[in-house]
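Inverse folding, one chain.
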Protein backbone atom coordinates (compact mmCIF):
# COMPACT_ATOMS: atom_id res chain seq x y z
CA UNK A 1 0.00 0.00 0.00
CA UNK A 2 1.29 3.42 -0.89
CA UNK A 3 1.73 6.09 1.75
CA UNK A 4 0.58 8.81 -0.64
CA UNK A 5 -0.56 9.23 -4.24
CA UNK A 6 2.95 10.01 -5.46
CA UNK A 7 4.21 6.44 -5.14
CA UNK A 8 1.58 3.85 -6.07
CA UNK A 9 2.04 0.07 -6.19
CA UNK A 10 -0.15 -2.51 -7.86
CA UNK A 11 -0.05 -6.11 -9.05
CA UNK A 12 -0.02 -5.95 -12.85
CA UNK A 13 -0.19 -9.35 -14.56
CA UNK A 14 0.90 -10.97 -11.30
CA UNK A 15 4.01 -8.78 -10.97
CA UNK A 16 4.37 -6.28 -8.12
CA UNK A 17 4.93 -2.96 -9.91
CA UNK A 18 5.37 0.72 -9.23
CA UNK A 19 2.58 2.41 -11.19
CA UNK A 20 3.98 5.01 -13.57
CA UNK A 21 0.68 6.26 -15.03
CA UNK A 22 -2.95 5.13 -15.11
CA UNK A 23 -5.55 5.58 -17.85
CA UNK A 24 -3.04 6.36 -20.60
CA UNK A 25 -3.68 6.19 -24.33
CA UNK A 26 -1.99 3.62 -26.59
CA UNK A 27 0.20 6.37 -28.08
CA UNK A 28 1.40 7.43 -24.63
CA UNK A 29 2.05 3.77 -23.72
CA UNK A 30 4.27 3.41 -26.79
CA UNK A 31 6.23 6.57 -25.89
CA UNK A 32 6.71 5.67 -22.22
CA UNK A 33 7.46 2.01 -22.94
CA UNK A 34 10.25 2.87 -25.38
CA UNK A 35 11.72 5.48 -23.00
CA UNK A 36 11.60 3.28 -19.90
CA UNK A 37 12.87 0.16 -21.67
CA UNK A 38 15.77 2.20 -23.04
CA UNK A 39 16.57 3.07 -19.41
CA UNK A 40 16.53 -0.66 -18.57
CA UNK A 41 13.23 -0.89 -16.71
CA UNK A 42 10.94 -3.87 -17.16
CA UNK A 43 7.65 -2.33 -18.30
CA UNK A 44 4.29 -3.97 -17.61
CA UNK A 45 1.15 -2.72 -19.37
CA UNK A 46 -2.39 -3.90 -18.61
CA UNK A 47 -5.78 -2.62 -19.77
CA UNK A 48 -7.39 -0.24 -17.30
CA UNK A 49 -10.55 -1.56 -15.69
CA UNK A 50 -13.81 -0.14 -17.07
CA UNK A 51 -15.25 2.87 -15.30
CA UNK A 52 -17.66 2.26 -12.46
CA UNK A 53 -21.17 2.45 -13.78
CA UNK A 54 -20.20 1.36 -17.28
CA UNK A 55 -22.82 -0.78 -18.98
CA UNK A 56 -22.03 -4.51 -18.82
CA UNK A 57 -21.35 -6.34 -22.08
CA UNK A 58 -24.32 -8.52 -23.11
CA UNK A 59 -23.70 -12.26 -23.27
CA UNK A 60 -22.45 -13.54 -26.61
CA UNK A 61 -20.89 -10.22 -27.59
CA UNK A 62 -17.21 -9.49 -27.48
CA UNK A 63 -16.18 -6.55 -25.33
CA UNK A 64 -14.69 -3.56 -27.13
CA UNK A 65 -10.89 -3.29 -27.10
CA UNK A 66 -9.50 -1.28 -24.20
CA UNK A 67 -8.96 2.41 -24.82
CA UNK A 68 -6.80 3.14 -21.80
CA UNK A 69 -4.03 1.31 -20.02
CA UNK A 70 -2.15 1.20 -16.73
CA UNK A 71 1.62 1.30 -17.11
CA UNK A 72 4.04 0.18 -14.43
CA UNK A 73 7.63 -0.93 -13.94
CA UNK A 74 8.78 -3.96 -12.00
CA UNK A 75 11.23 -1.85 -9.97
CA UNK A 76 9.03 -0.87 -7.01
CA UNK A 77 11.46 1.87 -5.99
CA UNK A 78 10.78 3.77 -9.23
CA UNK A 79 9.05 7.13 -8.92
CA UNK A 80 8.59 9.13 -12.12
CA UNK A 81 8.97 12.57 -10.55
CA UNK A 82 12.09 11.57 -8.63
CA UNK A 83 13.57 10.10 -11.81
CA UNK A 84 12.81 13.23 -13.85
CA UNK A 85 13.94 15.86 -11.36
CA UNK A 86 16.83 13.69 -10.19
CA UNK A 87 17.97 13.59 -13.85
CA UNK A 88 18.11 9.78 -13.82
CA UNK A 89 16.44 9.08 -17.18
CA UNK A 90 18.09 9.51 -20.58
CA UNK A 91 16.68 9.73 -24.07
CA UNK A 92 18.05 7.42 -26.79
CA UNK A 93 20.07 10.33 -28.20
CA UNK A 94 21.83 10.86 -24.84
CA UNK A 95 19.98 13.86 -23.39
CA UNK A 96 18.55 13.99 -19.87
CA UNK A 97 14.75 13.60 -19.80
CA UNK A 98 13.08 16.88 -18.83
CA UNK A 99 9.57 17.36 -17.51
CA UNK A 100 8.37 18.83 -20.81
CA UNK A 101 9.82 15.88 -22.70
CA UNK A 102 8.16 13.42 -20.28
CA UNK A 103 4.83 15.20 -20.75
CA UNK A 104 5.43 15.16 -24.53
CA UNK A 105 5.25 18.95 -24.79
CA UNK A 106 8.74 19.07 -26.34
CA UNK A 107 9.93 16.71 -29.05
CA UNK A 108 13.55 17.05 -27.89
CA UNK A 109 14.89 17.10 -24.33
CA UNK A 110 16.83 20.34 -23.84
CA UNK A 111 19.02 19.61 -20.86
CA UNK A 112 21.78 22.18 -21.10
CA UNK A 113 20.91 23.90 -17.80
CA UNK A 114 19.20 22.04 -14.92
CA UNK A 115 15.85 23.46 -13.84
CA UNK A 116 17.22 24.56 -10.43
CA UNK A 117 19.81 26.92 -11.99
CA UNK A 118 17.21 29.03 -13.82
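Residues assigned per position:
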Amino acid sequence: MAINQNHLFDDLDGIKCAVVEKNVSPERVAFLRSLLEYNRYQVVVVPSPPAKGAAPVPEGETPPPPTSFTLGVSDVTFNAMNAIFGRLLRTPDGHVVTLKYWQQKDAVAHDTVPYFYK
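Strands lie at 9-12, 15-24, 43-47, 69-73. The mean pLDDT is 86.
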